[in-house]
Design a protein that fits this description.
mainly alpha; about 70% helix
Amino acid sequence: MASVVLRPNESQDSLLKRFRKKVVKSGVLSTIRRKRWFVSKSELRRVEKKKAIRRIKRRLFTKVGE
């Protein structure tokens, strides 16, 4: 769990900004979004394979375009 302590003479805005950065860095929100719905292992494998193919194509395209 992310927590921040109010520093002396620190505004509420900067405190909130530090807290948001800490939450993003810890990956809490991405984990929650990923676990929002149940995804079977076969579906997860299919999606990961699709992502990998897309990533490889993108690398090949950028190298050819140089």
